[in-house]
């Protein structure tokens, strides 16, 4: 019998448009494997919300594989070690995978390739990250020219169907039990709100696309309004690779209206991967080094208390608090509110952007090393693109402008009785209920403090 191939799955938990699966299935029997690596140094441990998602996504993938008389093998440990053990156990000759660009995955790919015949395929991005270069031959650093260049290569190749058959090996290697990985929270179970909101897995992703395809034409009008479901909410499905961007493109590109704006957001996802390919430590180090060295970020007990208030949604700024509570309850936050909440942490509270990046990493179901770091550094102004630090968002004005009253009512029940305009700024209207905290800092005072800190950094430079 033909030797089996290993299908090494990571953030590509799907059967459709899965180039690694297509190649492995064409070669003979397939052993689908997922390895949880929590212990390798520099391998970023998944956050708690991501672990919740992962559990359900793996269960869903295993069920889909069973429909094809296959199964998912679960292992824990270093990828290269586990894959070598499985190869020795089963006589597998090669390993197929989709390429991933987080620094730890690139290291793992190198380590596996030293021991086994590793065949890497593309397909988790519109174009393979790193493949686009400027006229001068260097990788793009700025989104707009990057997107302009990427669009020249669109549409992406048509997505492939799931293989009709996935041949099983003669002998299955041993597998862990998913439940033993303890990916789900128990005491307390903080994820009940997640279950109501999400259906992890390929079928859930398909339903989301179907629901969104009808709305895509109106995307630009609705996407900035947190009170409406104006965006696709595909981010966790995309992060875990339950759907390919090519499939999304195929399903939405003809929607007309402002669908190009939506496709441009999918382009942001590609852009972020291109950035971490150039700057692997982007999640922990400012591209403008002065932000890490010279900017007087606050620290100490008052700063710690402010960080906790932000995390718990108790800052006294309703739009910020609504966003942080939505995040805690559902593992997701509206993009406009992410920008407002991130700006508030960095500028109003003068807390290092990396504290926010870490909180999002732990609490978002779509936590993505590249997208998270790129967006945090963009808001901070510390990144490779334009320096936004001196542009300080006014959260209360943003709340009014983007019509956030219903959103605040939903997530901040203490303010349920308030109407416009007091709902956006209860304190200034003398309508703050006793149960709702006072502002932890006034807007003007915060703005002056942030700009003074910025001047200190500039003076050092
Ligand atoms: P839609 O508006 O429907 O967009 C479609 C898809 O495009 C998204 O699913 C996502 O994959 C991609 N996308 C959209 N906006 C961006 C963007 N600005 N950058 C990169 N990709 C984008 N997104 C993540 O996927 N993971 C993160 O960890 C993450 N952290 C963020 C942190 C901050 C501080 C900010 C401001 C934004 C962050 N984003 C992150 C980007 C964005 O907020 C989410 O992708 C978006 O809100 C997801 O909702 P959606 O699927 O409805 O998006």
Automatic annotation (TrEMBL):
Site, as annotated: Electron transfer via tryptophanyl radical: 297, 353, 376
Listed GO MF terms: deoxyribodipyrimidine photo-lyase activity; DNA binding; FAD binding
Cofactor note: Binds 1 FAD per subunit.
Name of the protein: Deoxyribodipyrimidine photolyase
Binding site for FAD: 219, 231-235, 262, 366-368
Assigned protein family: Belongs to the DNA photolyase family.
Keywords from the named record: Chromophore, FAD, Flavoprotein, Lyase
InterPro entries: Crypto/Photolyase_FAD-like_sf (IPR036134), Crypto/Photolyase_N_sf (IPR036155), Cryptochr/Photolyase_FAD-bd (IPR005101), Cryptochrome/DNA_photolyase_1 (IPR002081), DNA_photolyase_1_CS_C (IPR018394), DNA_photolyase_N (IPR006050), Rossmann-like_a/b/a_fold (IPR014729)
SUPFAM superfamilies reported in the protein's UniProt record: Cryptochrome/photolyase FAD-binding domain, Cryptochrome/photolyase, N-terminal domain
Cofactor(s) required for function per UniProt: FAD; (6R)-5,10-methylene-5,6,7,8-tetrahydrofolate
Organism whose genome encodes this protein: Sphingopyxis bauzanensis
Photolyase/cryptochrome alpha/beta domain sequence ranges: 3-126
Pfam families, alphabetized: DNA_photolyase (PF00875), FAD_binding_7 (PF03441)
Keyword Secreted: no
GO process annotations (BP): nucleobase-containing compound metabolic process; response to light stimulus; response to stress
